[in-house]
Amino acid sequence: MNTQYQTVKVELIDGVAILQMDNPPVNQMSEHFILELKQATLEAVEDPEVKVIILTGTGKNFVAGADVTQLLTVKEKAPFVAKLMDVHRWLNALEASPKPIIAAINGNCLGGGMEIALACHYRIAAKGVSLGLPEVKLGLLPGSAGTQRMPRVIGLPDALDLMLTGKFIKAQKAWSLGLVDAEVPLDQLRQAALAAAGNFQKGLLSHQSRRASRRFDRLPSASEKTHLINFIKAQTAPKAKGYIAPFKIIEAVEKGLSTDFEADITREADLFGDCLVSDVAKNLIGIFLNERSAGRLPRIKGLTPAKPQKVGMLGGGVMGSSIVHLLLSSGLEAVLWEVNDQALAKAVEAIKKTFAYKIKIKKLKPEQLEALIAEKLKTTTDLADMAGVDLVIEAVLENMEVKQDIWKKLEGICRPDVIFATNTSALPITEMATVLTDPGRMIGLHFFNPAERMPLLEIICAQQTSDQTLATSVAFGRTIKKVPVVVNDGPGFYVSRQLGGLMGGSVFLMSDGVSPVEIEQALMDYGMPMGPATLSDLTGIDINYHVNQTFARRLGDRYKIHPLTEAIYALGDYGRKTGRGYFDYSGPKPVPNPRVAQVLADYLKEHQVAPREMSKQEIIDVMLANGINEAALMMQEGICDRPADMDLAMIYGTGFPPYRGGIFRYADKWGLDKVLAKLTELEGRYGARFAPAELIKKMAAQGQTFYQD
Amino acid sequence: MQEVVIAGYLRTAQSRCRPNDPGRDWFHALRADELLAQVLPELIKRSGVEAKEVDDFIVGSATGVGEQWTYGGRTPIFLANLPETIAAKFVDQQCGSAMAGVHIGFMEIAQGFADVVMVGGMEHMTRVPMGGTTKDRGLAAPNLGLFLNPEYRHWDMMSAMNMGLTAEKLFAQSGCTKEEMDKWAVRSHHRAAQAQADGFFDGEILPIEAPQADGTVMSVTTDQAVRGDTTLEGLASLKPAFKKDGVITAGVSSPLNAAGTGIMLMSKEKALAKGIKPLATIRSIGFAGVDPTIMGQGPVPASLKALEKLGMSPGDIDYWEINEAFAIVALNCIKELGLDPERVNVMGGGLAIGHPLGATGNRLIGTLARILEAKGARWGCANACVGGGQGVATIIEREA
Question: Does pTM surpass 0.80?
Answer without folding.
Answer: yes
